């Protein structure tokens, strides 16, 4: 994904790659996931989608989701993992593991 | 990103979209981030990159990173947010916020 | 809290304190929080309390909550922070910050 | 632990218990874990303990660890789980599972 290279360039241009060991990047990812979780924490579960569907709250959700993606790609960069390629393979494996005809309508098991 | 649509189709074909409210998906994302964190927890920080650069450990890292991406995109689907578009805008905003000439070599501030 | 000392002894007796730098312990904590999150991810929000109130599921919840506490106390040990003392001060500060008469029935703000 | 009852009283007095279903509390916990992770993200692993041993940074670490404990106890309250009792049993089980003589000096396995 070209965007993963954009994230690499963004860090490299700022000389931040020196801080980007995997443990640090996972902690940074956790920080962003925490901000994402806080958005939804006190919203009733059945109102969450609507509450974040427009306006400044939608903007906040977009930003927090983006931050998670950016650090996930930075982690991929630090490990030389092409994240979209890996995820494409993982989704294909999940298709094999959970055939449509066998799981229809059943709560997904932990993957 | 076409892959976000693939993730949508994967869930829809299995009738799992009914479970995909934002709070549930953030919890699922946290579960996958937890598995990713566990990979690195006891590895010395300066050996983490090398330790996960090849073999079965690299495979594990690829899988856990993939799971995080897949649930992040599922969350995007539940909120009708195009994750790659949003992240592209966020990275552009970060470029403006942290101009190369002003931050070179300084530890990145929390974004 | 004497239990924080028990956690310290548990690690020390096994010579595991060598692995217990703060970054590693936060990652371990995140791993346990991930397991806790997975318990609840697909349960409807209004059934979560009842679903985990008895039987093997209650046992699972008890174990995952316990693991989070144990790693949190181990983190306290690594930083020589008495966690119960610190939390007692924090709760007192929160009582001052959110006086009962001013917040009654209003959704708690992010602290 | 009397402090768990203090946390219960704190929420009840403010009429916040209505928001404290397990999924919401896990998300709130994740938010606090995220803030804790951010403290350590860019600090070199071998400097983290010293960096947070005194001054305002120690204060920050104390506060973030406290917030995690408070939400963990609130989760225990929502499920009627006595967190200290449960963790005491869990640590006893871990002592049996990892006898001192068998694990001395070996990296702890995921529990």
TrEMBL record, chains A, B, C, D:
Keywords of this entry: Hydrolase
Residues that span the membrane, as ranges: none
GO MF annotation terms: dCTP diphosphatase activity
Statement: the UniProt record of this protein carries the keyword Glycosyltransferase: no
Annotated Gene Ontology cellular component terms: cytosol
The protein, known as: Nucleotide pyrophosphohydrolase
Keyword Hydrolase: yes
Pfam families the record matches: MazG-like (PF12643)
Superkingdom to which the source organism belongs: Bacteria
GO BP terms, alphabetized: dCTP catabolic process; DNA protection
């Amino acid at each position: 994904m070209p965007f993963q290279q954009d994230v690499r360039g963004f860090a490299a241009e700022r000389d931040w790659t020196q801080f980007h060991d995997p443990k640090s990047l996972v902690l940074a990812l956790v920080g962003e996931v925490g901000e994402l979780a806080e958005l939804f924490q006190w919203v009733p579960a059945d109102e969450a989608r609507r509450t974040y569907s427009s306006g400044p709250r939608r903007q906040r959700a977009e930003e927090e989701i983006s931050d998670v993606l950016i650090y996930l790609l930075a982690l991929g960069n630090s490990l030389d993992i092409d994240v979209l390629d890996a995820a494409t393979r993982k989704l294909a494996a999940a298709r094999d593991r959970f055939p449509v005809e066998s799981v229809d309508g059943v709560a997904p098991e932990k993957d």
